[in-house]
Specification:
The protein is mainly alpha-helical and 105 residues long. The protein is built from 3 helices and 2 strands, in the order E-E-H-H-H. Strands 1-2 form a two-stranded antiparallel ribbon. The radius of gyration is 32 Å and the shape is rod-shaped. It starts with a strand and ends in a 21-residue tail after the last helix.
């Protein structure tokens, strides 16, 4: 990953770059934020959360809260659809509405 560089005064320096994600927790978090801005698939993944410094227990709790919020949103949408859909009235049959057999006498 590195290559020797000649510095001032004829000194050679062997530079070995360490990927930012391995340097410190802060650098790992910075790395994942930058990577997620380029690779949309990374956002919201457990890997990204782990690299950002969250513990597995915190990740599990965040995921559970997200599932609860999604479930509530789904229920609210279903309730809204049910309220917006007009009730259908039965036609003819046993309800006696309209011109039934009794109206033909």
């Amino acid at each position: 990953m590195g290559r020797p560089l000649q510095g001032q005064g004829g000194l050679w320096i062997d530079v070995r770059w360490t990927p930012a994600r391995y340097v410190s927790p802060q650098a790992a978090s910075d790395f994942i934020v930058k990577a997620a801005s380029v690779f949309e698939d990374i956002k919201g993944t457990d890997v990204a959360k782990r690299r950002a410094g969250f513990t597995q227990a915190e990740i599990d709790e965040m995921n559970a809260q997200g599932r609860r919020a999604n479930a509530l949103d789904t229920l609210e949408r279903m309730a809204g659809i049910a309220r917006a859909t007009p009730a259908t009235e039965p036609t003819g049959g046993a309800s006696g509405g309209g011109q039934g057999e009794a109206g033909q006498e």
